[in-house]
Please model this.
Amino acid sequence: MSTKIHMLFYAKKSRTTIRETIPIYLRVTIEGKRMEVTTNRFVLPHQWSSSLGQVKGNSAEANEINTYLDYLRHQIYEYQQEILREDKTLTIQALREKWFAIGDIKYTLLEVVSIHNAEMQCLIGKDFKKSTLTKYKITEKHIQDFIHWKYNCMDILLKDLKIEFMKSLEYYLQSVKGLSVNSRGKMLKNLKKIIGECVDKGWLPKDPFQRFVVKHIDANVPHLSADELLRIEEKTISVERLSLVKDIFLFSCYTGFAYIDVANLTPEHLKIGSDGKQWLIKNRQKTDITERVPLLPPVLKILDKYKNDKTANKKGRLLPVPSNQRINAYLKEIADLCAIKINLTFHVARHTFGTTVTLDNGVPIESVSQMMGHKFIKTTQIYAKISDKRIKEDMKGVFTKYSQ
Model:
């Protein structure tokens, strides 16, 4: 019985270009296995007929594209006959080798990005978070738009990649997409990682982007001073929604936990530490590194206040945490009430813990790093800038020596 081969031309709306056109793909299926290749042809959505698998109308552009699609269809059948004449089994792999030249499978950039993201999708909840996959999919969309903007085509072969590609992509993300240094840096790092994996898999002889340096600027997120922190803590707030947000914010100031980790705290995360006192021990969602934080009196007071909260108990959580968007909106009101001039966001709390609550009080940076769930001390140094107070304390002995 002969092996059946099925072909389908379709327009992929999920990859709409910045010019509002959609790319045309060819999908070949053999015994349930698929091969998808680009045609490097684009159409406006209303010009494409899904039922016919071709461009509508009789315009010169429509006739040119449809003729080309017929050529590709004929080419597939030609390869099919070649494989059979060589007394080989007709498989997707055999067809792929014919399509991209026998013995030399030539992958395209968007193809390997798609393969990477598909592999990552299978590892969600195991090795990766869903949010990580989302970032790579955003990267994929930016790369697709860039290729169409720069080269007016749908894809580019891996072997054609040069360092100039990354330089042009960086310029595009800055000038056309308007991304900040760090935002575009994340996209470029994602691409560098994927290309590095291509080298490991033998799809590329060497990394074309090896000499490309991704720019990064340390984030300058402010922190509360001891006086500002005390001002918020002692402020009596009668509005229930603001009072709750104040407590959640202070909880983070005294534990260093990020929003998502505070929101997901359960009674199981409360442990008795080696000192016989209560600790919070939880794997940080972002890095999966364990945060181990002894609970200071203000934290114990907040936990006691909400131990019978119906909303928290119903969800099995320690605290009734509103959405991050709502918290940040309400923090603006709290900042006004407490005469806080900095842009008060929930992330300020984490920086306050790293600087005002711990380092300024002489806690070694190694301990702070572990409590905050950082992989590297370097990250803690970025979060916890050395303040004037710490410098003053560290220099006391020096002043004493030179005053004698």
